[in-house]
Each structure stands twice: as structure tokens, then as C-alpha cells.
Design a protein that fits this description.
The chain contains no helices and 11 strands. It has strands at about 5, 10, 20-25, 30-40, 45-50, 55-60, 65-70, 75-80, 90-100, 105-110, 115-120. Strands 2, 4, 5, 6, 9, 10 and 11 form a 7-stranded mixed beta sheet that branches. A 4-stranded antiparallel beta sheet has the order 1-3-8-7, with no helix packed on it. It starts with a strand and ends with a strand.
């Protein structure tokens, strides 16, 4: 079983920065993809950024140039650096991973953290 725990959310003023962290735990050998998604009130969950174990990244158009995703494969962690935050970035941010290799099997399941709230407001 894989568990994801996020940290780093909070209240920030427009134009400010926050750094979100995600730690995956369990009997993990490697993770193919880690990512961040968000869900604002009344809206569907959407992709923010993803990173592969090889370091390839992809971002939502709305955060391109402002957010940076990184990962530490050895520690099974992913970080989302968010700069120039806007009120429309307010949402619950969820860590996700998929393509998990354990000592005994490969899992193609999606694993999710419980989320961390980011509020951008003056």
C-alpha cells in the first residue's frame, strides 16, 4: 500500500509564494509519475503539474512559468514551488502518484493524498 502526505499549504497574499511537499511511503521501489492536482470550490479536480521519474515535466497553461515541480526519486518526494500566486490559484491541492513499483509487483493505480488547502487572498 502507498500513502501520500502533503504539507505546505496555507494563506498567502496575491503575488506571494508557497512551497508544497509530498512524501510517498510504503514498500516502494520506484514511482513512474508524481504530480499535483487541485480542486477549487464548485469545480472539478484539474491537473497542475506532473513529473516523470526521468525528469520530464508538464504544466497546466494557467500555471506555466509560475509553478515549478521537482522530485527526489530516492526519497519518493515531490515538491511544487508556487510563485506569483493569484486568487484563482485558491484550491485544495492533491498529490498524486501512478506507476508504482514495489518489491513484488507493479501497480498502475492512482494514489492520492488527502490534500492541502492553499488560499490566496489579501
Amino acid at each position: 500500500q502507498v500513502q501520500l502526505v502533503e504539507s505546505g499549504g496555507g494563506l498567502v497574499q496575491p503575488g506571494g509564494s508557497l512551497r508544497l511537499s509530498c512524501k510517498a511511503s510504503g514498500r516502494i521501489v520506484s514511482i513512474n509519475v508524481m504530480g499535483w492536482y487541485r480542486q477549487a470550490p464548485g469545480k472539478e479536480r484539474e491537473l497542475v503539474a506532473v513529473i516523470t521519474s526521468g525528469g520530464s515535466t508538464d504544466y497546466a497553461d494557467s500555471v506555466q512559468g509560475r509553478f515549478t515541480i521537482s522530485a527526489d526519486n530516492a526519497r519518493n518526494t515531490a515538491t511544487l514551488q508556487m510563485n506569483s500566486l493569484k486568487p484563482e490559484d485558491t484550491a485544495v491541492y492533491y498529490c498524486n502518484c501512478k506507476g508504482v513499483n514495489t518489491p513484488t509487483r507493479y501497480s498502475g493505480m492512482d494514489y492520492w493524498g488527502k490534500g492541502t488547502l492553499v488560499t490566496v487572498s489579501s
